[in-house]
Amino acid sequence: DSGVTQTPKHLITATGQRVTLRCSPRSGDLSVYWYQQSLDQGLQFLIQYYNGEERAKGNILERFSAQQFPDLHSELNLSSLELGDSALYFCASSPTGQNYQPQHFGDGTRLSIL
Amino acid sequence: ILNVEQSPQSLHVQEGDSTNFTCSFPSSNFYALHWYRWETAKSPEALFVMTLNGDEKKKGRISATLNTKEGYSYLYIKGSQPEDSATYLCACHMNSGGYQKVTFGIGTKLQVIP
Q1: Is B74 strand, coil or helix?
Q2: Which pLDDT tens digit goes with each residue over A18-27?
Q3: Partner residue facing B32 (CB), from A2, A100, A108
């Protein structure tokens, strides 16, 4: 158990809808990362937060947004969903988000768009 | 575009054999290289974080080396066991346009045959 909690584990919805994925980092970790793994693709970095502030941004679509709240949990919002957004979304956390710190991954949220 | 490549993509070895795989990355603007072990139906688990040229890290039968000048890292497994069967991912943290980016390789899938 990594200590990182993601909910829900599975989500099925339709095109055009909006969903929110939630992540609670390990106790004491201030930084949260979001990743997407689509079929037959490697993990893609989406965005990183540290103590409520955006720290780094990867290939995150404009239809996607994220935030980190004062209690350090983070939410990834996906809107105007398309079939291609079906993927496994991971959250990871580290103590202060420095690149030399290992990241601890949650179990992921599997999003299926019908 | 930051290309992180791993080879081979898959590998079958007999129990007891030693093996190694490669992660190659652009050598400029490098911050850190992370190795992860990813078992099926689980989340990636951090193995090593390497930052300095010449770094060598070891955990049990698994070790890794880093060459930032030529842009590669090797992961070695000595005396492979069936429980080593997993996908091994590398992730490169680099500076891209003034921002830190994290790029994962596609992984090396290792199958250890009893």
Answers
A1: strand
A2: 999 999 999 9
A3: A100
Residue B73 · residue B64 · CB < 8 Å: yes
Chain A residue closest in CA terms to B38? A105
- Judge whether A11 and A19 are in contact, CB under 8 Å: yes
Cβ contact (<8 Å) for A56 and B100?
A: yes
Residue B28: per-residue pLDDT: 85
User: Amino acid letter at A21?
Assistant: L
Please determine, for residue A85, whether its predicted confidence score (pLDDT) is greater than 60.
Answer: yes
pLDDT at B29 over 90: no
Pick the residue from chain B with its C-alpha nearest to A89: B43
Tell me the DSSP string of A46-87: EEEEETTEEEEE-S--TTEEEEE-TTS-EEEEE-S--GGG-E
List of chain B residues whose C-beta atoms are within 8 Å of the C-beta of residue A101: 49
What burial letters (b/e) apply to B49-81, b meaning 16+ CB within 10 Å? bbbeeebebeeeebbbbbebeebbbebebeebe
**A39 contacts chain B (CB < 8 A):** no
Q: Which residue of B has its CA nearest to A110?
A: B41
- Amino acid code (one letter) for A42: G
H helix count then E strand count, chain A: 0, 11
B84: three-class secondary structure by DSSP: helix
Cβ of B103 within 8 Å of Cβ of A45? The answer is: yes
